[in-house]
Amino acid sequence: MDKTEYTFRLRSGLLSYPESFRNEIMESFESHYANGVAQGKRVSAILEEFGDPEDLLKEIDELYHNHPDKAKIDALWVSKNRDLMRNLTDFKMGASILIPALFVLMIILHQLGII
């Protein structure tokens, strides 16, 4: 297995985790890989240090679920997504009020001969 395939399998297995956690894992992987290359190790030797991607993903899952900050990570992820949805909803509600109000304003300005 080459680095591209290993990375693909690892990234694919991390999709169910929050982005910040995925990024942390991938940065750690890339850093360890780069250190191995800098030490003159072969790609296969570096990847063997990580072990099988599925086994590594099991270890990562255990780390994530037993991580002392897991609740904080989950809360942050939910909060960010909730804020995004709230902002979209506020925009839709604002637009549904604003557009008719502008239309009425244009009619009034037209009747007054301003536009």
Key traits:
mainly alpha, 115 residues
Give a verbal description of the structure.
The protein is mostly helical. It folds into 2 domains: 3-67, no CATH class; 82-115. It has helices spanning 3-13, 19-38, 43-50, 53-66, 70-111. Helix 1 (3-13) runs parallel beside helix 4 (53-66). The longest helix has 42 residues, at 70-111. The radius of gyration is 26 Å and the shape is elongated.
List the helices and strands and how they pair.
Layout: H1 3-13, H2 19-38, H3 43-50, H4 53-66, H5 70-111
Distance between the termini: 70 Å
The overall pLDDT, averaged over residues, is 76
Whole-number count of domains = 2
H and E order: HHHHH
Oligomer: single chain
Using the alpha-carbon principal axes, give the shape: elongated
Largest sheet, described in full?
Answer: none
Radius of gyration: 26 Å
Q: Runs with pLDDT <50, length 5+?
A: none
**In total, how many beta strands?**
0
- As a percent range, the share of strand residues is under 5%
Global structural class? mainly alpha
Short description:
The protein is mainly alpha-helical and 115 residues long. It contains five helices and no strands. The model has no long low-confidence stretch (mean pLDDT 76).
